[in-house]
Design a protein that fits this description.
Shape: globular
Largest sheet: 7 strands, mixed
Strand content: 15-25%
CATH class of the largest domain: Alpha Beta
CATH architecture of the largest domain: 2-Layer Sandwich
Number of strands: 11
Distance between the termini: 38 Å
Order of helices and strands: HEEEHEHHHEEEHHHHHEEHEE
Structural class: alpha+beta
Helix content: 25-40%
Number of domains: 2
């Protein structure tokens, strides 16, 4: 009887495992990227999230059915062009498997096209959802490589996937070396999200095709100081380190009210203020003590420019994307 009992238990486990793989849910944090001089290589996950639910369909008239809830839900594609679904498909293509019909439920918590990594959450969510339903054949490193290939650069998708503050550098074989950057607990990220958009394409068009040696050296030095400032919590280092000559001077003009908000943040005690990702969201780094004052000052400065904005203090999400 013992062998039959063992076989029965194994059969039950297989059935239960198969059932658990018919649906899965992934929570992915939004991100802030660049952080001043860390253009296209430095980013941090934040405590704001999108959630993606996946349910395999045994029979379906279409390859994908998508429902979306949350702010700006009506602006999200609900057909095969949806970025979450494209990432979902990418995994099965990579594995050489047929893409199963799927229903995807999206709950939005990260604003669209605002510089908080909404596209990165979609890519990471789709990749992780597909990998989960396929039995998790891909490692975290493989998922990361697929995510970077889809996004085009690592600064948003890497922290969205694995959490924390991350610096990405390419190896000689074009793979990636990922370095965790300690974020001191006394440093509070304050995000200021205006009620207008700025596309990544437009933000990249204004950048020059080449830079001087002086500008390159400036950014290298300031990125090194930024890493030490984040680790140590030294506000004086951060005040200098957040300066940049690669992207911010060219993008500031695309963000209405930037100069007023920048000055108000510094006057109210922030260490510095930078463009989050490609913008238009702005990110102030400050102490916990000064954070409420900085929030109010930024809110007032943008209101005086006739711009509504959501301003709030967040924290660094150390978990990254996770299955629920």
């Amino acid at each position: 009887m013992a062998p039959r009992l063992i076989l029965y238990i194994c059969w039950v486990d297989i059935v239960n495992t198969a059932a658990s793989l018919s649906s899965t849910t992934v929570v992915v944090p939004g991100t802030t990227a660049n952080l001043g001089p860390g253009f296209d290589c430095l980013g941090a996950a934040l405590t704001v999230h999108n959630q993606f639910g996946f349910r395999l369909q045994e029979t379906s008239d279409s390859a994908v059915t998508i429902t979306v809830s949350g702010t700006e839900a009506d602006r999200v594609n609900v057909d095969a062009n949806n970025l979450v679904y494209q990432a979902f498909v990418k995994v099965f293509q990579f594995l050489g498997h047929a893409v199963p019909p799927v229903a995807i439920d999206i709950e939005l918590g990260v604003p669209l096209a605002r510089g908080l990594g909404s596209s990165a959450t979609a890519i990471v969510g789709g990749l992780m959802g597909a990998n989960s339903l396929a039995g998790e054949p891909l490692s975290e490193a493989q998922l990361m490589e697929l995510a970077i290939a889809m996004e085009g650069h690592p600064d948003n998708v890497v922290p969205a996937l694995i959490g924390g503050c991350r610096l990405a550098a390419s190896r000689t074989d074009d793979s990636w070396e990922i370095c965790e950057i300690d974020w001191h607990s006394d440093i509070v990220p304050v995000v200021a999200i205006p009620n207008f958009e700025l596309s990544t394409e437009e933000a990249r068009r204004v950048l020059p095709s080449s830079y001087s040696r002086a500008d390159a050296v400036f950014n290298v030095a300031h990125l090194g100081l930024l890493v030490r400032g984040l680790e140590s919590g030294r506000g004086d280092w951060l005040a200098t380190a957040l300066q940049d000559r690669i992207h911010q001077p060219y993008r500031q003009a695309l963000i209405r009210g930037f100069n007023a908000v920048y000055q108000s943040a510094l006057d109210s005690g922030a260490y510095g203020l930078v463009i989050s990702g490609a913008g238009p969201t702005l990110l102030a780094l400050t102490s916990a003590e000064a954070a409420p004052t900085v929030e109010q000052a930024i809110q007032t400065a943008w209101a005086e420019q006739g711009i509504e904005a959501e301003v709030r203090s967040l924290a660094v999400d150390q978990q990254g994307a996770r299955l629920v």
